[in-house]
Fold this protein.
Amino acid sequence: CLHRLDQWFSNGAGMDDPAAPLPTSPSCHEEDGTVEEKENNNKKRTKGAVATAWLTFYNIAMTAGWLVLAMAMMRFYIQKGTHKGLYRSIARTLKFFQTFALLEVGHCALGIVRTSVIVTGVQVCSRIFMVWFVTNSIRQIQNEESVILFLVVWTMTEITRYSYYTFNLLHHLPYFIKWARYNLFIVLYPLGVAGELLTIYAALPFVRRSGMYSMRLPNKYNVSFDYYYCLIVFMLSYIPLFPQLFFHMLRQRRRVLHGEVIVEKDD
Amino acid sequence: MKHYEVEILDAKTKDKLCFLDKVEPNATIGEIKSMFHKSHPQWYPARQSIRLDPKGKSLKDEDVLQHLPVGTTATFYFRDLGAQISWVTVFLTEYTGPLVLYLMFYFRVSFIYAPKYDFTTSKHWVVHLACMCHSFHFMKRLLETLFVHRFSHGTMPLRNIFKNCTYYWGFAAWMAYYVNHPLYTPPIYGEQQIRLALIIFLFCQIGNFSIHIALRNLRPPGSKTRKIPYPTKNPFTWIFLLVSCPNYTYELGAWFGFTLMTQCLPVAFFTLVGFIQMTVWAKGKHRSYLKEFRDYPPLRSPILPFIL
């Protein structure tokens, strides 16, 4: 039993339902354990309870944050009638909550959420990259329509996702949230990708002209870096990565909504 | 002599794949794999994983049937390891790439740099020295693969060759591009820095080679025995007193020397990535030494004396 607990708390590589916190009291038969074993069990149960409490707080906070973002965006558009200047008005809130999501990588690494660190890492990093290294630094593209597109998509996705996790942790999941999480992505994911790619594409000429974040030869480190080509490589990386993430969600959808058992390819 | 019956089931679907009767009690798993291969020609022995339990560990080729915890009708589970490729092939391919690629950049073959630089040579003597060191390093690796190393496993999964070659060839091209660039900047501290770097590099190359020879001599030809390595008369092996995997320690030192010599950030990056990978390997090796040998010297660290 203790061995199983150990496995649960260590890094799980399974691509299972994310944010499902690990059960705190195992349903296994315990023989007359030693005092040490019982102490260990108690420590692990406390660890589990703390993890659950933290995750609940985290997910509620993130749901609230993205709801605030959504409302700010709607209010701006209703009041001003245009999307120009919308990004600037919500930039700080967006940066705060999107950066905070880095913690999710930590959750996977610590094992309190049973998702692959790499999958979460890739998703969070691509968001951080978009927010900090594209829209934040290249001011000329902040009023592009593609920015609004991915902002709307991200907001809808994150509100659904974080409220799903929250309700899950509270063991009170309304079916429509589950439905939303595992169906909306089919439309939102490709739309989000389109918004992101169009934004980067629009930014390219400005990057080229300003030579930002770039380093040329000769220099004492004997290295060069061209942010323009870096962005192009980043865009190309969507080609292998997006289908993998999309089909991962499709597999999850089949499992969660239809109870199908998918045999994953063993490594 | 009582004969055994062996049935082999698929570990995932539990389908009966093969039934062998009249199997000798002293038959090895290796021999059973050959028999299985006859009935399923697409699964050559190297890609068979035979185990007692569907989710258990693979049995070794040397394991003898009658010494396994099975009845006279033995049930084994089979898992396909996928297409396999020999370690020697992988090593030769992954090391030849950097050797050839670096030279292409050194001789400034067409289409790499601006046309006016095609087939010119660098005016900095450190660039020539770096080329000699890099080429020597990979020629040494190739020769060791052919004549020195004794491999525990014959094969690895085929996809590894693509992964490994991308890593070695990619990094070699990236490093070689900058070191041999017409706009290359030589090390800040000039001759002193280069000389020190060369000494470190050569010292570690000799050290690394000494360790490879020492490890080879631990194992008689054709066997797969494992023993604790100890310092020999060669002073370069005395590091065994403090480190479990000194071959990695020396390798790190050699690349550190090369970084110092070229003062090139991509080289530093390659050294760092290699260091991380070798540390992971060293820790694993150290752990299995500790598990296998009760009397393993306690003073030893995996890769860096006292630190890591």
